[in-house]
Write a structure and sequence with these properties.
The chain has helices spanning 14-36, 41-66, 75-78, 84-102, 106-131, 161-182, 189-204, 211-214, 222-249; strands spanning 4-7, 10-13, 138-144, 157-158, 216-217, 220-221. The protein is mostly helical. It has one domain (4-249). The strands form three sheets. It has a two-stranded antiparallel sheet. The protein has a two-stranded antiparallel ribbon with strand order 3-4. Strands 5-6 form a two-stranded antiparallel ribbon.
């Protein structure tokens, strides 16, 4: 599609531009929601800035681990990309460490993050579509890439899985924001986001078509195994939480 945008005589990667727009929109949303809940703007900005560092490191780290088998093609190839799950958990871990060290309360930081993440992701994924990465499976209806960053993705009608994921992320943002706005699910929205996205991502992986780039073990991609792990971890978490809640009532 449009891997590069020409502005003022300079070439700007479309994905980077959309990711930046997504980060700015999500950041402004998070700051606004935090201030409404009595959090000083500096504190939420501080947590977000540290989280961005975790996102970059985690995304590159998981990408590199998935692509270690291509080490013969050079370190730039192995570590030159990002995997969303790596960035997600890198950012969440970094943010949680900052919140703990600064002794900030978990609420509303975690609940706001649960809304801000799919908002960012929904916008950034449009950049994937325009760039031609994360391309979809061959389909009777879809789009034909001619300038994809991945040569063998070109010249074939492909299902726009990036746009579907973008729409689902924005829909998930709408649901979570509705709960946040009404004060529902307090302190559990992040878990709800993680569980919902794990289910969505597991299904979406079957529509990706870029198996060679994502690592496939026993018929499932890296992200599908991560999704399964997230779902199981959340199931255990809620069982333990439920048991403790029932014990507290008795």
């Amino acid at each position: 599609m449009y891997p590069l945008i020409h502005i003022a005589g300079k070439e700007i990667p479309t994905y980077a531009l959309m990711a930046l727009i997504g980060a700015l929109v999500a950041g402004m949303f998070a700051e606004h929601q935090a201030v409404k809940r009595g959090v000083h703007p500096f504190y939420i900005i501080e947590v977000m800035l540290y989280s961005v560092i975790g996102v970059v490191i985690g995304g590159h780290l998981l990408y590199g681990l998935v692509n270690l088998r291509h080490l013969d093609q050079g370190l730039a190839y192995v570590w030159g990309g990002q995997v969303f799950y790596g960035g997600l958990f890198g950012g969440l871990l970094t943010g949680a460490l900052v919140i703990k060290k600064k002794k900030y309360p978990r609420y509303p930081y975690y609940d706001i993050a649960a809304c801000a993440i799919p908002l960012f992701h929904g916008i950034a994924r449009i950049g994937c579509f325009l760039t031609g990465c994360c391309y979809g499976i061959p389909s009777a209806v879809g789009f034909v890439y001619t300038e994809s960053a991945v040569p063998y993705a070109n010249g074939v009608v492909r299902f726009p899985v990036q746009l579907l994921e973008s729409a689902l992320n924005l829909a998930l943002f709408g649901v979570l924001y509705g709960l946040l706005h009404r004060g529902k699910g307090k302190d559990h929205l992040l878990s709800l986001y993680l569980g919902s996205y794990a289910l969505l991502r597991f299904g979406l992986e079957f529509l990706r078509g870029d198996d060679v780039l994502r690592g496939i073990w026993w018929g499932l991609s890296t992200s599908q195994w991560v999704s399964i792990s997230v779902a199981l971890a959340l199931l255990v978490y809620f069982i333990v939480w439920r048991v403790r809640a029932q014990s507290g009532k008795s």
